[in-house]
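=== RUN LOG ===
request id: a7f3
mode: sequence -> structure
chains: 1
length: 167
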Amino acid sequence: METSDIYILCIEDEQEVLDAVVRDLEKLEEQFPVETATSAEEARSVIEKLLENGKKIGLILCDHILPGDNGVELLIELHKNEQLHASKKVLLTGQAGLEDTVKALNEAKLHHYIAKPWNKEDLMSVSVELLTDYVIEQEDDVLPFMGTLDAAKLSEFIRSGRNVSDS
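=== RESULT ===
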């Protein structure tokens, strides 16, 4: 399986939690390299470096409580970046209140909310689903992703012969 130029970005300030997220996504890492950041500032730097090198960010998993800007504010800021518009955004937190969560849904176009402590299968399932959607929307050739992502959904997309613009 070949590594793609689509990255997963995990933003979490607690190293132990960050390591657990990366470990839980290990099966995806063969095809989707995982980058990490421990603050909003570091996340901006990682994103800038990836985009400058022609890479894409398919999935952003972000904690709410971060040093500096909080996760919701960061996700809103990232959503405003044209190059990250298609990126799937997940708030992974035990701290965001209803108001912050609603703000993230409305202003950052949040795709999913996962409460801590999370279930490994749920995290993997949500990540696979969102990356499958990202690949269908952004990639010309979805075949290389059949072994990692939702093969049934990708097959249906191929069979339908649709372009994303048709849906």
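=== NOTES ===
Helices lie at 15-24, 26-29, 40-52, 71-79, 98-107, 120-138, 151-160.
Residues 76 and 108 are 4 Å apart (CA to CA).
=== END ===
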